[in-house]
Design goal:
Elements (H helix, E strand, L loop, with lengths): L7 H13 L4 H11 L6 H59 L2 H9 L16
Length: 127
C-alpha cells in the first residue's frame, strides 16, 4: 500500500473500530498501571478506611511485639551476667569456707582462746 492522505471520516471510522474491540480486564488494568492512570473515587477511599485502620493496628501491634521482645532479651542478658557473677562469688565463698574449716586452721584459731587440740582419742561411752 502506498502512503495516502486519510480524511477525517476515515479517522473516525478507524477509531470507532478500535473502541468496538472488547479488551480484557487484565489488559485494561495493565494499561492503567503503565499509564499511572488511577481514577480513585471518594466512595472507594471511604470504603477502604476500616481496612487501612486494621493494617495500621497490625503494624502497631507488630512494633510493640518487637520492642517488648528486645526488652526481654536485654533483661535475659543482664540476668545471665548477674548469674555468672553470683556463681563466681559463691565459688569464692565456698573455697574460703573450705579453707577455714580445715582442722589445722580451726586449731590455730582456738589456740588464741586457750583451747588445745586433743592428743588422745575420745572415749566412747557405752552402757
Amino acid at each position: 500500500m502506498a502512503n495516502r492522505i486519510i480524511e477525517e471520516e476515515e479517522i473516525k471510522d478507524l477509531t470507532n473500530g478500535d473502541k468496538l474491540k472488547e479488551e480484557s480486564s487484565l489488559t485494561s488494568t495493565v494499561k492503567k498501571i503503565a499509564d499511572f492512570d488511577f481514577h480513585l473515587k471518594r466512595e472507594w477511599l471511604i470504603k477502604q478506611i476500616p481496612f487501612a485502620l486494621f493494617v495500621i493496628a497490625l503494624l502497631l501491634i507488630h512494633i510493640y511485639n518487637v520492642h517488648s521482645t528486645e526488652r526481654i532479651i536485654r533483661q535475659t542478658d543482664n540476668l545471665n551476667k548477674e548469674i555468672k557473677e553470683l556463681r563466681s562469688e559463691y565459688i569464692t565463698i565456698l573455697s574460703n569456707l573450705m579453707s577455714e574449716s580445715k582442722q589445722s586452721t580451726v586449731a590455730e584459731k582456738l589456740d588464741t582462746f586457750g583451747i588445745k587440740e586433743l592428743t588422745t582419742p575420745p572415749i566412747k561411752i557405752t552402757y
